[in-house]
Design goal:
With 159 residues, the protein is an all-alpha fold. It is built from five helices and no strands.
Length: 159
């Protein structure tokens, strides 16, 4: 049976994957001229991303309380390998962009709700690809941790 650490990690990745799906649906809807469908899909992406954040914070609290760690390291038993380098090359921009894009996503939602669609459109030309990148790379980061055994090893060490 999966540990709490693994379940939380998988839930976080699932929310990222679901946000990606909603983002792509929203993009397709607006390209097709369906503003109402676009609004619903993007609203779902925002809600899913908020759920992601709640689960992510819960996973951090769990790590601290149950494992006395702030993070789980990727393959700590080995030195620098090509996959470890690739992991960090993906992880660092993912973290920085996730932090940076969040207020702009909120601003884009606010502009749309205010009917300031030209400003919304100008902002989302770069916010959308960054948000999409963050969502996709969130799943990739999880996959590195899951399939390397790093999550299972951290959970096992806590027993």
């Amino acid at each position: 049976m999966a540990s709490t650490t693994e379940l939380l990690s998988r839930s976080v990745a699932g929310m990222n994957a679901l946000a990606t799906v909603f983002l792509l649906i929203g993009f397709a809807k607006i390209k097709a001229g369906d503003r109402a469908g676009h609004g619903k899909a993007m609203g779902a992406a925002v809600v899913t991303s908020a759920l992601f954040l709640a689960l992510y914070l819960a996973s951090k609290v769990h790590l601290w309380v149950a494992l006395h760690k702030t993070n789980i390291l990727y393959r700590p038993e080995v030195g620098l390998t090509w996959d470890k380098l690739l992991y960090y090359v993906i992880l660092f921009p993912h973290i920085l962009l996730a932090i940076a894009v969040t207020p702009f996503v909120l601003r884009a939602v606010w502009l749309a709700k205010q009917g300031r669609l030209e400003e919304h459109k100008r902002l989302t030309r770069w916010v959308f690809p960054v948000w999409l990148y963050v969502s996709v790379t969130g799943v990739i980061v999880w996959a590195f941790m899951e399939f390397s055994g790093s999550l299972a090893a951290a959970a096992q060490a806590a027993k």
